[in-house]
Amino acid sequence: MTSPCTEPARPVEQFRTNPRLLRRRVASGMVVCLAAESVYQDVRVLRLDALAASVIDAAQRGATRADLAAAAGVPANEIDTLVGGLAAARVLERVTS
Length: 97
Description:
This protein is α+β, with helices and mostly antiparallel strands and 97 residues long. The protein is built from 3 helices and 6 strands.
């Protein structure tokens, strides 16, 4: 007989666009600028393609990976690396509940 209890659901990760992000649309996508958060970090300027720009726009108010994938028009499993890279670059922030 199996236990009626199931494992608790994993929390759904949500992301939002970094509020300190400066951005400008260009013909091929977007250019973003991130200020340094300490004296040991450089200012980052990134040129992003249209797919990354659509993910950033979709994350304005917070969104799950599935929401970001739907906004970008790609399958959810294909956007994981992009979202991870944008989070590592501090363009997107993980939202904690």
